[in-house]
Amino acid sequence: MHRTILITAATGQVSSALIEELDRTDRQLRVLVRDPSKARSLGARGVEVYTGDLGDPFSLAPALEGVSDLWLLTPNGPRAPEHSTNALWAARRAGIERVVRMSAVGAAHDAATRSGRLHALSDHELQQSGMCWTILRPHWFMQNLLGAADEVAATGKLHLNMGNGRLGMIDVRDIATLAAYVLTDHPDRHHGQIYTPTGPRAISFAEVANQLRQTIGNDVTYTLVTDQAAAANMLNRGIPDWTVGMLIEYAQAYASGWGDFVTTDFHDITGRPPRSFAAFARDHAHAFTPRSEPNDAAAAAYGQFAGDPAPDSDRAPEHPGAELEQQTGDAALRDCHAPAD
Ligand SMILES: NC(=O)c1ccc[n+]([C@@H]2O[C@H](COP(=O)([O-])OP(=O)(O)OC[C@H]3O[C@@H](n4cnc5c(N)ncnc54)[C@H](OP(=O)(O)O)[C@@H]3O)[C@@H](O)[C@H]2O)c1
Asked: Is the distance from the beta carbon of residue 54 to the nearest atom of ligand 1 less than 6 Å?
């Protein structure tokens, strides 16, 4: 049967990588974007482009008509559950067969982060939706480090408030590969599954800095900073209050050892190991390498960290890894082919 996949957040980093993966398959691809001018190149490649806003439920129906599979990624923010419920309601009304949802590592009603708790609400709603569902809860993205690349290139320093925590961080390209496997496989095979893809090894930010140093051939050091200094720096760079608070919560959780685990989910489904941090560093070396012209703006932006190191963290690890062994959410399993009520 000819299947059409609708991809939300199509201009974002995960969905963009997913489109590249799915472009190699026989599926008809359709994207939902707020601004169609951002999807011109996709349109030129034969991808169907629909305009809609996850915050506006009335804008979603046309994009979902005739779609069999929905890739649902909601942007981070306080309105994430609203965006998700709008999409799920429109999907039910359109008779969508399967939804594959991008959630986040450790999503739970009692998660230590506001993002984890909001994701849990939307995970739960999908589990009760009557549609086939699969939930991906990836670990911390290696690509988050690209936000610090200018600083590393300009100063040789990686200032973070992540303590000595080790993270089973994953390359976004592997999340896309896993999502593409699920979206192109038979819906029954992954219905009711929650996958927590991680990288191959949990590593600390001292190891991250060491790997970057080896890759780019310049000194890179990881310097602990306080939550207050990190928050001030983010606010200074224009990051919204809510997001800063969320990132501080994640940093506190990771510093306590919450992210110190890996799973075999990626390998189990795709049959290959996930990318290592060394591979990520190699593929993005240019971003971390000092420019021939000094980047004074980047150096100044991070200059405030000078002299503000945080004490080493020795908080006891309490990580969610033990609960993350391919959770199935059995209680919420229903016949996903039955029409939603
Ligand atoms: N970063 C991590 O380490 C991590 C780890 C696990 C899970 N996650 C989860 O990953 C998700 C973020 O993925 P990402 O980094 O790929 O996202 P991203 O790059 O920040 O992109 C966000 C996307 O959402 C779109 N968007 C924003 N508001 C919208 C609206 N009202 N209606 C429709 N589309 C809208 C944006 O489109 P425009 O072009 O129109 O702005 C953009 O395409 C979040 O749910 C987060 O919790 C993140």
From this structure: yes
